[in-house]
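Submission sheet (multi-component)
Chains listed below:
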Amino acid sequence: MTKKSNSEIAYQKLKDQILENELAAGYQATEEDVARQLGMSRTPTHEALVRLQSEGLVEIRPRHGMRVLPVSIDDMREIYEILTSLESLAAGEIARKGLPEADLQALSDAVSDMDTALQADDLVAWAAADKRFHGLLVSCHGNTRVQTLVNNFMDQSHRCRMLTLKLRPRPDKSNADHAAVLDAIRRGDAEAARKIHHQHREKSAALLIELLETLGLKQL
Amino acid sequence: MTKKSNSEIAYQKLKDQILENELAAGYQATEEDVARQLGMSRTPTHEALVRLQSEGLVEIRPRHGMRVLPVSIDDMREIYEILTSLESLAAGEIARKGLPEADLQALSDAVSDMDTALQADDLVAWAAADKRFHGLLVSCHGNTRVQTLVNNFMDQSHRCRMLTLKLRPRPDKSNADHAAVLDAIRRGDAEAARKIHHQHREKSAALLIELLETLGLKQL
DNA sequence: TCAATAGTTAATGTATACGTTAATTCATAC
DNA sequence: GTATGAATTAACGTATACATTAACTATTGA
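Outcome: structure written.
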């Protein structure tokens, strides 16, 4: 098998640490420090940081080191606006063209898993299944660029979703929405699939942002 | 003033050369060759290539050198689907919230310039004004991520648009569409702005793709 | 006390040497 | 003639030394 390069390792480790909040937003360090922490030289470290910067997770400020970017409420507004637009595009299109049974089954499984998780009050599992559903939606659509973008914005907003997960009301309505989207897809009703998913994402966004505002969390 | 780094210079030069088709799609070279051509070492060259890869303009194939990515018909389908979605989002939103007179004027100027260019049969000037209109639409909306994405996808499809510019019918209808979008924005009719722009982009895409298919241009 | 400036320094940008890897070539056996 | 595998080699990955730059600091003059 082909060996992973150090820069790839650096990229994945750093990304993991950022998404899991082990490297908190606002964390700042020089490239050399990061390199030392990773046990490699600055060269592959720098390359990883450049990639993470292009994904909006860190910022490289010449002479000040890299900084893990916090996510503001406005960032979340931007991100959710895009997720809403692209995902509902995907939902509509897959309803229009129809989906092989295997894909429908995968979507259906994700919805079931969300229900199961919710009944068990396992919010982390619920979030994972929810994420899977959204990921399937765009991967079934087949536009690879949409897929990449949605994955990227899900990453950018991951920490925020995880943080608010336990602070928000139980997402029962969310599960119902997903089931309704899936139903519209099965019926081949593109307009309904698009609209329902659109409203679903808008509601999620509004909820999240209101929560952040209520809690006075400007940055996280 | 703060001096530009070599990697920045490399990035811009390479990007220019690719967009202007001086480095044709399919062009392949080792990092060392590219570096020599740019008059610098591999380090900044590599960094520039990584950036260009993240923007979808080149591909880095270990042990084979970098390659200027051709754009296929399917790529154009993907790109225009996203542009359609994000730009009509922007059109709708700016109609909804209203725009300061200066912004309206800038949009109006772009429309006028398109008309003038078309009357003078100056297709290159027309394309520039058209691009400006689309750019203004998203910059007025204010979602910086949408702006970045739209700019990036406009870049990815730039060569293709330039190539087909002289092969397509005169874009009279296109100008009328833009005027109609602007009118809807002025009236504050979000739904109309969104819909008209959506149809406009879908028509452009269909035209472009049909043209590519007719000409049998699978890659460019 | 404040502002301007020159010197200091920390951090990154860059070049380069070297190690590593995988594509290719060539020899050999069948 | 073909398939296998070892040797070759071209290209990149990595570490590191050095150059460069802009932030910082301390000094000086007002």
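Remark: Chain B has nine helices and three strands.
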